């Protein structure tokens, strides 16, 4: 046989896995990978126990349990005033990652162009490549990581099949406002082009800001796959449950992929989440405050170090400039910090095709205060 030719030759083990492995090897405090070290709400765990003791062990419906899709539609209406048909427009997936993959496979054809904004989440490009598409990277600009509308206007053309936006934005924490969606709608109007709106951190927004969803913009809604994650909202990233909201025709295409990727997502967890979401809206309503306290706590700790935090308006990530500590490039700095000083972070250059000459690392502050304290004690010594 000929040597195997990889379909994804650029892809290795992700930096998230590598940094977590390095953190374990060197007993570092792990503020790299984006997962909380606190537990999901106890009432939700009770409901999971009950679902497991009950009848919820066989395949769920392919697009998701009816109860869960109904609960999601009710939440979208209550929170954003968006009317969604749970039967035709919501698909439950195995994490937002699956929803992103399914949407891209459903829409992107050979040689289509897909515009992403760097720094961007790492699953987009491999999914685009597998679909035969070409990823066009545009940089977010300035310390606020804003979309450069002129560059977007120049990049859009008749081959553009999809634009991917992410708000609240990982890794910068930047938010898109309603006015941004207006601009986006205006620029996309002439093209037969879809929008993938990655809104997995919808409930992690700070300083009184309200999450603006692309679904609330009537024109974008027509061409939009909006993707959400239960993992981020319920401190349960390991459950790998998410969902996609899209108009009926787009959802039908997404489901053609979904049904042969996973067919359906885990039944007992869908049942538990359906009951919990309906009974406890206060959980997601209180999440901004919950995470803002952690952001502020971590910012106070960083203030006693030589790191310079950038503004984090959302997500549970904090970017920080380390140029007062070291001139090393960020990947080397992150390795050094983990191995020599026992704190694991993510270097921001891995989110770029063409990284800027910045000295920034990303901390995840979705951690117990004791974990953040332990990290800060080590960072203060630098
Ligand atoms: C921006 C972004 N999109 C999507 C995901 C994937 O979410 P899930 O864990 O539900 O697959 C993540 C997870 O870190 C993320 O940060």
């Amino acid at each position: 046989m000929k040597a195997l030719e990889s379909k994804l030759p650029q892809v290795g083990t992700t930096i998230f896995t590598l940094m977590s492995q390095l953190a374990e090897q060197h007993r570092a405090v792990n503020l790299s990978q984006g997962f909380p070290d606190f537990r999901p709400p106890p009432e939700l765990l009770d409901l999971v126990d009950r679902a497991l003791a009950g009848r919820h062990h066989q395949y769920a419906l392919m697009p998701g349990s009816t109860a869960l899709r109904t609960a999601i539609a009710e939440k979208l209406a209550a929170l954003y005033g968006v009317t969604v048909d749970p039967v035709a427009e919501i698909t439950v997936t195995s994490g937002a990652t699956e929803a992103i993959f399914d949407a891209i496979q459903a829409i992107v054809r050979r040689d289509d162009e897909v515009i992403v904004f760097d720094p961007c989440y790492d699953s987009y490009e491999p999914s685009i490549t597998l679909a035969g598409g070409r990823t066009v990277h545009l940089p977010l600009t300035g310390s606020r990581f804003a979309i450069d509308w002129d560059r977007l206007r120049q990049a859009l053309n008749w081959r553009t099949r999809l634009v991917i936006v992410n708000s609240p934005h990982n890794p910068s924490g930047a938010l898109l406002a309603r006015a941004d969606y207006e601009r986006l709608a205006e620029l996309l109007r002439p093209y037969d082009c879809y929008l993938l709106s990655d809104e997995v951190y919808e409930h992690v927004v700070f300083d009184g800001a309200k999450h603006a969803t692309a679904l609330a913009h009537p024109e974008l809604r027509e061409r939009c796959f909006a993707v959400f994650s239960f993992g981020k909202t319920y401190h349960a990233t390991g459950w790998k449950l998410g969902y996609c909201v899209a108009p009926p025709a787009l959802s039908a295409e997404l489901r053609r992929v979904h049904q042969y990727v996973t067919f359906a997502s885990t039944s007992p967890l869908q049942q538990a989440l359906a009951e919990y979401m309906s009974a406890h809206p206060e959980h997601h309503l209180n999440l901004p405050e919950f995470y803002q306290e952690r952001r502020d706590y971590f910012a106070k700790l960083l203030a006693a170090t030589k790191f310079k935090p950038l503004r984090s308006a959302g997500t549970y990530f904090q970017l920080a400039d380390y140029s007062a500590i070291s001139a090393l490039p960020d990947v080397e700095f992150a390795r050094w910090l983990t191995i020599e000083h026992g704190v694991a972070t993510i270097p921001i250059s891995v989110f770029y095709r063409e990284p800027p000459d910045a000295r920034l690392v990303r901390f995840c502050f979705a951690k117990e205060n004791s974990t953040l304290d332990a990290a800060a004690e080590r960072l203060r010594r630098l």
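Residues 134 and 166 are 19 Å apart (CA to CA). The pocket of pyridoxal-5'-phosphate is lined by residues 34, 95-97, 121, 166, 170, 198, 200, 229, 231, 237, 242 (CB under 6 Å).
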